[in-house]
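Below sits my pick:
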Amino acid sequence: MPPFSTEPQDWFLSPDEIGSRGLPAFTSNNVVIPYVDAKEYMKDVHDLIRATRVGDYIYLAGLELSLDLRLLGGSEFTEQQKKDSQIGKLLEAAHSRGVYVRILLSGDLATDNEEVCEYLDTLGITCIIDRRQPLAGTPHQKILLILINHDGGSKTLHGFCGGIDLALNRYDESGHPAAEEDRQPTKDAYKGGWHDVHCRLLGPVCCDLEATFLERWNDPHDPSSLDNPPEKIERQCDALAVGGGALHVQVLRTYACRSNPQNRYPFAPFGEFTARNAVLKAINLAREYIYIEDQYFVSNEVADALLLSLALHPELRIIVVVPPEPDNAIAAIYMKPHQGLLIEQILRAAEGRFAIFQLRNPALQDASIYVHSKTVIVDDVWVEIGSMNMNRRSMTHDQEISLSMIDAILTPDGNHCRFARELRLRLWAEHLGLDPSEIAVDPVAGFEQWKERSQLAGVRAKRHFVELDDPFELSTLTTMLSNLPIPFYNKIIDPQGLCRDKKSIPPPPYRPRSF
């Protein structure tokens, strides 16, 4: 591929790379509206649910759902409006109007989903707890579809996908204000706020989201078969593929491969790893910069891919944004030293072209802002937003969905895409405390902006722990990892879902290759 190609065929996975599945390789003419943090997303969901009426439908798949989550926040709304915006109340009212509401939640033991589904069932809303995944797996896809019938017979299908669940802790604004009441934090929440990225979609990609939801909904198979499989839902989307936008979008997923034929997903009998493969391909194609926001950043494969791209392209710059550590204490014990080992290796090989940051809230005594975003931007061309984290579990084992996007509208130089550039400038402006117009378009200059502004008081972006003056030593990290029960890590913390005849992803302790 020549440098600066903006053709989707060059960046997206090809049909041969995807393999057989019930979706097109990608769709075009889509509208994509990105959300940086949850305020605008939740308000749009509030407004659309209130607009539904008899004959419309709402399909929701998520890790969890908090029925008392208020979708409206901020000073522009009264306290009564905020109370009335609880998602549980909105779904109950929609159902009472004759809206077809179907909800698919994870069987993850750390959630309250059992109680949520039991309550919704009392209202007549069908809610499924999905435990159809391998040992220690988690259905982690975040899909929301809302069909609106208009007067005159036209219809619009609104799709939402990304990193944000409709759950407590998730609400925040891009300014990450000091007041916590709108964020609705739980007792163990990060006090500095919650950073995430999501998107709203119109066009034929919504049909791909609907197909993904219905594949899971209509599948009663083992393991953990549904005790009472719900009525099957027939696809309604083909006539709704109305776009009018300029975005090419490829739907990417993770489904584990199972050795037992009785337990295979009928829609992915040998698993699906397109979300993993797409991000590795994009890293390989990078020429100017790679920007990553990720909750974990502990993938050995990603580390190898970054090292190779750095070796092949001397001008390449890489910026990564992560939380101080995973929000799960057990996972943090294993993943923090593993992440440190990978980052130390990349730093040493990059010779000043790799930097990693975390976010702090200066309005709250530099309390940590939790980075939950799963977003990658490459060369102001290719963007991925979704639910897949950069760890082995998310890339091969859990049920995930991500979207890669390329804009047909180019920047004035003709070599980059408008959507990718505008999203990058918006994210960097938030983290660096600048207006988007003040962010350098040139990635080398932008890389230097990160390094300079992260040292200033009042700026959210701060260097991550391994770049401090007293970093972990590789020998210390290796010792820590070698003393941990690695089988527990491999089976529970970060399991692998690749087919047995495929090359295994190396577990820790592990050193990336040097180039």
Observations:
- Residues 180 and 375 are 25 Å apart (CA to CA).
- Residues 329-350 form the longest helix (22 residues).
